[in-house]
Design brief:
CATH topology of the largest domain: Trna Endonuclease, Chain: A, domain 1
Low-confidence stretches: 258-266
Number of domains: 2
Radius of gyration: 28 Å
Strand content: 35-45%
Number of helices: 4
Mean pLDDT: 86
Oligomer: single chain
Length: 266
């Protein structure tokens, strides 16, 4: 157990130095602002970042149970027992994160620690930005360079083509001269992806007055989404096989699961 006075000093010093502060101990948590909530006493982890981010974590699950985002004003104070006028020993450490809302009101999280198991601060140096490999945009870029992976004779026309309700990943032309809408997904595709592709194909067909092919490219597709594709009478699915590497993704190939074009445009 860490004495409250010693813990408060470590927390305040870390905050003054704009370091990452970690506090583990027994506490109560309350919130006032857009709503109100109270969390009864329990052992929790509090994380305070130099930008004002304030996170209260329980012993399980990924998300914080209470939090304030960057920009909050964070304070740390020792609370004394008002009935003990002789010893004046602290009975708690009170940490709060406060911010003003757009309407002028104030929201605040208050964490009252009565026992401290750990309190420390670390001057982390990390200015790196996260770079995500294998994004849908990157996969579309790779496909644009060689649409033969989808179908021999297919050539790209335009990438990121805006329509009324969204953006088509790739517009292409097949060997028979038909326009093809290609929708790329980096994870397993569901009904929403099929609906999205169907909407793009329908809008383009109405705009151009001709039939448009639609191909959904993804690592896999749910059974219900595949059934919807098969019943659409014109949409197709191509299994996208790719691997993530640094500094980029790599498409191994496309395994086609679709009817031949003559079945649609005989």
């Amino acid at each position: 157990m860490v004495p409250l006075g010693e813990a408060a000093k470590a927390i305040q010093t870390g905050m003054a130095r704009r370091e990452l502060v970690l506090v583990v101990g027994r506490c109560k948590v309350s919130y006032e602002g857009r709503a109100a909530s109270k969390l009864s006493e329990g052992d929790r982890l509090l994380i305070i970042k130099h930008d004002g981010t304030f996170l209260v974590h329980q012993s399980a699950k990924m998300s914080a149970i209470n939090y304030q985002g960057p920009g909050a004003f964070v304070s740390c104070e020792l609370a004394l027992d008002p009935n003990d006028r002789k010893k004046r020993e602290p009975v708690a450490i009170v940490l709060s994160a406060k911010r003003k809302l757009a309407n002028g009101a104030v929201e605040q999280i208050v964490v009252r620690f009565t026992e401290i198991l750990y309190a420390g601060a670390y001057g982390l140096k990390d200015d790196s930005h996260l770079k995500l490999f294998g994004t849908e945009k990157e996969l579309a870029d790779l496909l644009m360079s060689d649409l033969h992976l989808i179908e021999p004779g297919m050539v790209p026309l335009k990438q990121e083509s805006d329509v009324r309700k969204g953006t088509i990943d790739i517009l292409a032309r097949d060997a028979a001269g038909n326009t093809v809408v290609i929708e790329v997904k980096r994870r397993i595709a569901g009904l929403e992806a099929v609906t999205q592709l169907e909407r793009y194909v329908k809008e383009l067909s109405q705009r151009r007055g001709s039939k448009i092919r639609g191909i959904l490219c993804a690592p896999d597709v749910t059974a219900s989404a595949l059934k919807m594709l098969e019943e659409s009478g014109g949409l197709e699915f191509a299994k996208l096989d790719y691997e993530i590497a640094n500094p980029s993704a790599k498409i191994r190939g496309l395994q086609k699961k679709q009817k031949i074009i003559t079945e649609y445009f005989g």
